[in-house]
């Protein structure tokens, strides 16, 4: 009885309750909008409830694991992730022109999702081993460790997930001391590239024009972002319908399960990538702003945990995972509102999906583990004093 009681106490105290409250509010909003998006309680809603349960259990288990043990798991976690990505190349299931899923018998998994955790974790382990003596060569090695999963995911093709993996790893490298001066040429090249596309879009978006390094569907996504009316019933349909839904919600929204765009099936992928359009149409500007405030508070809490982390490795990891959450939110809402290309990035805790939700749950569990280690260290210091 005492053992069970002590375990319950440990499980309860392992959670970072400010973060947990935010996650519960987001989960509640996610289930409400999912119920509306599917038109009631069906198998997708039931699946999402199960996905939330699995994600929160995984988060709890990870939260009870000390950060130094999590970092030690970096190499096997990274290696398994790469093996699964190679397995997808040869044995993966193809859906909608992309080979991203691996059938393991009782379910399908998307190995690229786990690399959002495995890649930054591997880089954290590497920079921890080089702490105090990080050189330019170390950043090149870290870049190579990041490039392998990035290229494998791009090949599937899944540019959205690849960019998230790259963003997570890049944040680790930047927090580890990558000089901002080295990024200036990349920023200049990006500005020139975007400016060139905008200025010469009529010529660059011609069907016979090939963009080096991008698939045709990726080129079409950029071109329809610039002018969705060029293909209103094809590539531009997603952007047009989602922006109509967001705008038609007005200030107060049309009401729960009363959104015409969502209930009449005008919003494509309304349970996954474009679920924010459903939320904004039904709950309006006030609801959308409230949701964004919750995400801002979530990211602020993550950064607070990173600042107070007791070790260099845990600071790198907490900072990178928090920035991954920021990229999720920024990219998804950006593409739904028509300011970014459609790249297939889910909205945390709202979009339907098991693997993505599990990944986010593990990331939040790591943040809680780091928060708990920080609190334990402060208590030890106070006891010593």
State the low-pLDDT regions, or none: 378-385
Helix-strand makeup class: mainly alpha
Helix content: 55-70%
Mean pLDDT: 82
* CA(first)-CA(last) distance: 34 Å
Percent of sequence in beta strands: under 5%
Give the number of DSSP strands. Answer: 3
Compile the SSE list and pairings:
Blueprint (H helix, E strand, L loop, with lengths): L1 H12 L3 H21 L5 H21 L3 H6 L1 H18 L1 E3 L2 E6 L4 E2 L1 H19 L6 H19 L4 H17 L8 H16 L1 H4 L11 H11 L10 H12 L11 H4 L11 H33 L4 H25 L17 H31 L1
Helix pairs in contact: 2-3, 2-14, 3-16, 5-6, 5-7, 6-7, 6-8, 6-15, 6-16, 7-8, 8-15, 12-14, 14-15, 15-16
Structure notes:
With 385 residues, the protein is mostly helical. The protein contains 16 helices and three strands. A three-stranded antiparallel beta sheet has the order 1-2-3, with helices on one face. The longest helix has 33 residues, at 275-307. It starts with a helix and ends with a helix. The model is unreliable at 378-385 (pLDDT under 50).
Quick structural overview:
With 385 residues, the protein is mostly helical.
Output the keywords.
385 residues; mainly alpha; 16 helices; disordered C terminus
């Amino acid at each position: 009885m005492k053992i069970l009681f002590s375990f319950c106490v440990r499980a309860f105290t392992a959670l970072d309750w400010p973060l947990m409250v935010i996650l519960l509010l987001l989960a509640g909003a996610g289930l409400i909008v999912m119920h509306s998006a599917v038109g009631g309680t069906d198998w997708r809603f039931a699946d999402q409830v199960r996905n939330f349960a699995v994600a929160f259990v995984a988060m709890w288990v990870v939260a009870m694991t000390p950060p130094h043990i999590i970092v030690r798991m970096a190499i096997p976690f990274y290696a398994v992730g790469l093996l699964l990505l190679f397995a997808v190349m040869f044995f993966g299931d193809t859906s909608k022109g992309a080979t991203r899923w691996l059938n393991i018998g009782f379910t399908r998994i998307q190995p690229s999702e786990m690399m959002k955790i495995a890649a930054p974790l591997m880089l954290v382990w590497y920079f921890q081993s080089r702490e105090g003596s990080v050189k330019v060569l170390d950043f090149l090695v870290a870049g190579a460790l990041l490039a392998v999963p990035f290229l494998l995911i791009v090949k599937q093709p899944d540019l959205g997930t690849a960019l998230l993996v790259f963003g997570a790893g890049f944040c680790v490298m930047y927090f580890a001391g990558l000089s901002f001066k080295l990024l200036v040429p990349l920023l200049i090249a990006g500005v020139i590239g975007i400016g060139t596309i905008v200025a010469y879009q009529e010529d660059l978006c011609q069907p016979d024009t090939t963009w080096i390094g991008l698939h045709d569907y990726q080129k079409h996504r950029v071109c329809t972002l610039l002018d969705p009316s060029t293909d209103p019933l094809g590539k531009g349909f997603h952007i047009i319908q989602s922006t109509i839904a967001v705008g038609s919600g007005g200030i107060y929204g049309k009401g729960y399960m009363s959104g015409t765009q969502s209930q009449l099936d005008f919003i494509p992928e309304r349970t996954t990538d474009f679920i924010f359009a459903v939320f904004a149409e039904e709950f309006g500007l006030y609801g959308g702003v409230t949701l964004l405030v919750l995400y801002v508070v979530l990211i602020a809490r993550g950064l607070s945990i990173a600042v107070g982390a007791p070790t260099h490795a845990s600071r790198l990891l907490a900072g990178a995972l928090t920035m991954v959450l920021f990229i999720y939110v920024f990219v998804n809402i950006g593409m739904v509102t028509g300011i970014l290309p459609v790249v297939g990035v889910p909205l945390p805790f709202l979009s339907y999906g098991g693997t993505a939700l599990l990944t986010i749950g593990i990331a939040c569990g790591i943040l809680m583990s780091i928060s708990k280690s920080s609190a334990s260290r402060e208590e030890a210091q106070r006891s010593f004093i």
